[in-house]
Design goal:
By secondary structure, this protein is an alpha/beta fold. It is 34% helix and 24% strand. The radius of gyration is 20 Å and the shape is globular.
């Protein structure tokens, strides 16, 4: 790859070995610098190289697409008195961060797009302040509490509901492969696209496979992973997969997708109990209960806010 040449998003996708949709997400987030010539997007070779170097450890947690281990990715992103790290991938967190930034313009709020298990590990290691989780435990039919107890031993935490969401299958319009149950994804003509390990959707899938005594070896595409619900939905919408697992809200953004509801999940915030009295966290709790925030979240659709701001448990 020449650093003196500009590339199209399709060419960047081949260079980085990711989907074209993911390239556009990187550009949208500002992780990959690009410019426009009319309606066409171009990326300089030097900027691709810069992104690759960042992905090796420096600030790479800002994108969920980077390959380094969690401890390496978080190395340069520790919380401080001047900044708060908020981990999670849902758009509701972006709205929440915007409200916090309005109240505390002097504070640097860092958004980190990582999955539930990685987020809890970051909280345990003192590398995050607010994390989200939607981890279903099949033994107790409970969300998040069993995982918080296991992954944050000896660290008192508070679990606060953000929203409820519906998890289900993304399928092509009309559901041509007639996919309605977990066992249907084992059909020999069905191509599945999976979420990354540690995400709540991946945990839900693996738990359901265990209960149903389905081997992942029977699923075509089980090892093919994407890092966001949007990327999963986009791949199904483009016909590169027949089915993927994600939330209903994302399916609503694609006119050529149907959504098969399977499991209502509780999407919670997890913070340290010792932080509850700090001004930033008191403001967070107030925002969750404010009519303006609740109306904005309700207005975008796809979420149940009936328990938003409620303390689910103190662990």
């Amino acid at each position: 790859m020449s650093t003196d040449v500009s590339y199209t998003p399709e060419e960047v996708a081949k260079i980085l070995r990711i989907s074209k949709f993911t390239v556009y997400e990187l550009i949208k987030r500002g992780d990959l610098t690009a410019y426009h010539i009319g309606r066409k997007v171009r990326v300089e070779g030097a900027d691709i190289e810069s992104y690759k170097q960042k992905s090796k450890g420096i600030n790479s947690l800002a994108s969920p697409l980077d390959p380094p281990a969690l401890s390496e990715r978080l190395n340069h992103c520790s919380p401080s008195d001047e900044g708060l790290v908020i981990c999670g991938q849902d758009i509701v967190l972006d709205i929440l961060t915007r409200y916090l930034e309005k109240q505390f313009p002097q504070v640097h709020f860092l958004r980190r797009y990582i999955g539930s298990i990685d987020g809890l590990m970051a909280l345990y290691r003192g590398l995050a302040n607010v994390v989200t989780a939607h981890l279903w435990d099949s033994d107790t039919n409970e969300y998040n509490l069993p995982y918080v107890r296991r992954l944050l031993p000896g660290h008192p935490t508070c679990i606060i509901n953000l929203v409820y969401r519906m998890e289900g299958f993304y399928v092509a319009k009309g559901n041509p492969k007639n996919i309605t149950t977990w066992s249907d994804i084992t059909k020999p003509d069905v191509r599945f696209i999976n979420r990354e390990r540690g995400s709540g959707a991946r945990v839900l899938l693996d738990e359901q496979l265990r209960i149903s005594e389905i081997s992942h070896k029977d699923i075509l595409g089980y090892g093919d992973e994407e890092m966001t619900h949007l990327a999963i939905a986009s791949k199904v919408a483009r016909g590169e997969a027949d089915v993927g697992l994600g939330i209903e809200k994302v399916a609503m953004q694609f006119i050529n997708l149907d959504f098969i509801p399977l499991h209502k999940e509780r999407y919670d915030l997890v913070i340290r109990q010792e932080d509850l009295e700090r001004p930033h966290f008191q403001a967070l709790m107030s925002i969750l209960k404010s009519p303006s925030f609740r109306n904005e979240v309700m207005g975008i659709g796809g979420y149940d806010i009936s328990r938003m701001g409620e303390i689910i448990a103190e662990v």
